[in-house]
Amino acid sequence: DQAMAAKEILKWDFVDPERIAVWGHSGGGSATLNLMFQYPEIYKTGISLAAIANQLTYDNIYQERYMGLPQENLEDFVNGSPMTYAKNLEGNLLYIHGTGDDNVHFQNAVEMEDALIKSNKQFRSFYYPNKNHSIYGGVTRLHLYNMMSEYILNNL
Q1: CA distances (Å), 27 to each of 32, 51, 133, in order?
Q2: Over pLDDT 70: what percentage of the chain?
Q3: Distance between CA 54 and CA 62 in Å, rounded?
């Protein structure tokens, strides 16, 4: 849906198709990765925070409630995981995760980066030491949003 809306917006005369960006946190971080990897012709820059890169390693209470068991539905778990499509990255990606994430475990960041590296894709990453899923705290939040703003300005 997001990509289809972006395609319509790109029809507007005042929109520069070389300056389309997307960012999100948690599920939005996963959506950012999926958009960057599955619609690289649209999205030139993305910032993904605390993303679920591999649905097989996400919180089973949440994931299995909506998707069933991996043993019964493995194909959908794999197809819904952004790391499956990492080889398609073309734009600028900044990947951010807290090392103490209690919701989307840091393993997701490691697996996502491994998939990108195996596909010889260039990207940037940043880790907030001991920060949980919210990547929260006065100085931390200021640092995060300054970094995100700078990344957008430098890449668009």
Answers
A1: 9, 6, 11
A2: 100
A3: 14
Q: What is the pTM of this model?
A: 0.93
Helix (H) / strand (E) element for 113: namely: helix 107-118
Active site (catalytic) residues: 26, 101, 133
pLDDT at 43: 97
| Cα–Cα distance, 82 to 32 (Å, whole number) | 9
Residues 117, 41: Cα–Cα separation, whole Å = 21
Q: Environment class of residue 148 by beta-carbon count within 10 Å: exposed (0-12), middle (13-18) or buried (19+)?
A: middle
CA angle 145, 104, 95 (to 5 degrees): 40
* β-pair partners for 25: 49
